[in-house]
Amino acid sequence: MNTATLERRSGTALVARRVLSLFKLRIGVVIAVTALGGIAVQPGRAPGWAAVAALFACVLLASAAAGAFNQWWEVDLDRRMRRTRGRPFATGELEPHAGWLALMIGMTVLAGAAAWAVANLAAALYTVAGALVYAVVYTVWLKRRTWWNIVIGGLAGSFAVLAGAAAVNPELSLQAWLLTLVLFLWTPPHFWSLAIACRDDYASAGVPMLPVVKGDRVAAFAITAHAVALAVAGGALGVVSHSIVVTLAAFAGGGWFVFEAVRLQRQPTRARAMRSFFASLVQLTLLLAAVMLDAAVK
Length: 298
Prior knowledge:
By secondary structure, the protein is an all-alpha fold.
């Protein structure tokens, strides 16, 4: 393999890393998958595979726009935090000029218009609302002002569930609202776990995350309370859906999250916080997988 080929591959890998970082595509994929969960739990005739794939892409596009806006707006914060100082705007690899803002707005409008075209107006509004809550309510309004930032800002992920459910039927079911509640309850303890692990980072940047404002033990107690509520909400979803698979997944994943949260409460160290963080990911993954499996076999 010659040097030119190696350089091209290296350049391609670098561009891919920048795109993943700038648009927060890992988080975006998780959010888009929750839209599939919304489709799965909503009673009624689901859209065809092409429409489902298109709606997934719409939610991902809107989420990517919001993620990029978050970095565009928070260049100063990102440069003060070890965890984020390698982001493209923070390093200066990309200049945060107004053209980026125009691109992000265009992506959001396109996502909403496409969701309307492949589904309906309600799905489109929920798709756009999720991006706006993350970009405006969380990033601009709350993040630098109050530890409630991620509690209220957590609504952003919930809107993806509503978008998926509305694509099946705009008259949302109890199942759809319960899965929406799960996402609302899941977001704060997921990020508070990370905030405990990176508390000094947030403190030095002046971001009032719960562990910074109230301390690690209070944050760990809040994580435990949310984890318990998550297990209950997930179990309720299984009962309402008449699904043993969903109920078992809710209590298995939720139980492990509660276990790790209690351990974190007893010993609020960085290692325990990261175990709680990953337990929250497993909890959500198991529940979404069970919801989609249940829909596939019915």
